[in-house]
Amino acid sequence: MGEIAGVRRRFVKAAMDAPFLTREDEHALAVRWKDEGDEDALHRLAAAHMRLVIAIAARFRHYGLPMADLIQEGHVGLLEAGARFEPDREVRFSTYATWWIRASIQDYILRNWSIVRGGTSSAQKALFFNLRRLRARLSQAAAGDTTVDIHQSIADAVGVSRDDVAVMDARLSGSDMSLNAPLSEDSGGSTERMDFLIDTQPLPDEAVSESIDTERRLSWLRSALGVLSDRELNILQARRLSEESATLESLGDRLGISKERVRQIESRAMEKLRRALLDRHPEAAMAMV
User: Fold this and answer.
1) CA atoms of 127 and 119, how far apart (whole Å)
2) Are the beta carbons of 97 and 76 closer than 8 angstroms?
3) Which of the residues in the chain have pLDDT under 50?
4) 277, 289 contact by CB (below 8 A)
5) How far is residue 78's CA from residue 263's CA, in Å, rounded to a whole number?
6) CA distance linking residue 240 with residue 232, whole number of Å
């Protein structure tokens, strides 16, 4: 660890000691790299701006990731800026490179801050990196506001929903928790949080078996319905095979008979259906009706 820290200090010192470039020198190096592919020119251009990488990386050190990794990712962004820089546009390289450095560091933080991927849209990314600052500012400006009010103000400022703000606030307030972590110190590590996650869904073999049985019973029922007359079938479908069961009175009005007569026809149809199922599949007849 001491050796690594020493290397890091020497790297930072070398970056801070690198000479500043004049606008003319910067432009000349960028042209040499752009037109001639001179890697030495790119190296000198990047080395002169490593202090910019360190300064930007330092702004993100409170996310709990190693400073060396942040600097490394910022250096990747710096090289990307060097590869894309157009010297003829008369823009200082530092101005152009700042966006690439910050974007590279932010992308690294979003990928590594939590095992749960976040910031998948530009609005979510802005919320992730601005939530703490906005929350602190709003809490001071409106001390009497509730958490809900503060979340709504942040949502309006960033352009996301209040629920998104609440979820992100909860994530930033806590840390990831392993499901394989011991439930408590008293358990001696033998009981994990995973042990208390219960899946209410049926087992795969049970689901397949139920699907096969259901299809078989439906085929039996469709076959047995063939023994009914049209009127019996219509009444049975309206009373027993529809999501909303029709009343005896409504069926009687529609068929021009009394509701008592409808009840008698339904009872007779059920008996005929039961006998048909019993004759063809005695083991399932009672379950089907």
Assistant:
1) 8
2) no
3) 285-286, 288-289
4) yes
5) 84
6) 11
